[in-house]
Amino acid sequence: MKILYILLVAALIPVSLKAQEMQFFRPNNQLGVNVFETPKIDTVPFTDLKVKVGGNFEMAFQALRNFNTATPLTKTGFTGNVNSLEKLTNGFDLPMANLNVDAQLADGIRMNITMYLASRHHEDTWVKGGYIQFDKLLFLKSDIVNMLMKNITIKVGQFDVDYGDQHFRRSDGGNTIYNPFVENYIMDEFATEIGAEVYIHTNSGFFVMGGITNGELDATVVAGTKIDSATNQPNQFDPAFHGKIGFDKQVNKDFRVRITGSGYTVHSANSSTLFGGDRTGSHYFNVMENQNIANGTTLSDENDYSPFSGRLNPGFSEEVNTVMGNLFLKYKGLEFFGTAEDAKGRAITEVNERKATQYAADLIYRFPQGKENFWVGFRYNTVTALLQGYTSNITINREAGSLGWFITKNIMAKAEYVNQNYEGYPAANILNGGNFHGAVLEASIGF
After folding, report:
1. Out of 160, 191, 419, 443, which residue is the most buried by the measure of CB atoms under 10 Å away?
2. Which residues of the chain are under the pLDDT cut of 70?
3. CA-CA distance, 389 to 353, in Å (whole number)?
4. Quick check: is 171 in a domain?
5. Domain that holds residue 429
């Protein structure tokens, strides 16, 4: 299969060199920073079939340290204290890389396929997903449809579910070019699901989106056999629905405001992964893990055993009902991005929903004016959640400071200092009194 991918790339490169510009497209470099939904402005004339082959690559050097206050614990089948943390040292993390193939199939019709060439969670090549986006429907030869499509975008395929705005700013395997920090949120809302989204844009800046998906990362046609504890019925694998309403306006040449509200709901899933759908893994390595546990599993490689270091998945695998609000303000080089999230859900073995809330704020200053190829930033991120089997909430807090430089529009370097604390975990849990802190340096390429 890898040979086929290489041959595909080799075959497409000559075409990609002829035409790099795509219609209604988010660039894979600095020009894509602070771009959310793909723009509706028609600035690229269609001439013929165009194919663009692009990629992302990141490499990081980590200097983190960790500690906890968990009670020493032994487990049958495992060696040593399973609550002791791995001792960390300074060193390079596993690099990650993506391959992006975009094709302009017709006027106003674009296709995307993204592949994870190498990542922490899946070291082998995996297809992330692919979709087709319609911004024009000229093949219907209808003046009414053509007029409507001036304000409508339709996306169909397996794609990033457009829940919230943070997924437009997150790191995705080798693609870290849009993220001013090294890692994503503690509770990382990201999943690729099969479905469709319809956007309605207005010239005033208001827009609305409605979407429906299969609610699954790993699609299945096999009927459910597990019994839902809340209904006493077999799983039905209902479709998931999501939506967004927002306002995004460049008020003048110096000031932009964007405010959105999003929601996602699914009532019966085979395995909902809205908070655990990342197939690449965290960009903090080994921070709160125990190698004795890894050695006792079939996945003895710690990269596979615990790929989501520093994150929290609330475990809403059966039912999810969640809403998020986002505010983005940018005045000249100063920008603010805020998130407030209220999520409820449960696993199939639970009768009642549990709750998780997340708040985050990014303050970034980009300079010099006109280029904005340097930045300094600070992030505060906190999550409070009731986990399955717990009687009281746990809390995780993170502070992160960042310095960055776009050496060119395709080459980026950044340095981050992070401090993360774990509160409310039982004494017998490895995260009791947990903390990790230190610096991470990362270089990234996107084209």
Report:
1. 191
2. 1-20, 292-305
3. 12
4. yes
5. 58-99+129-446
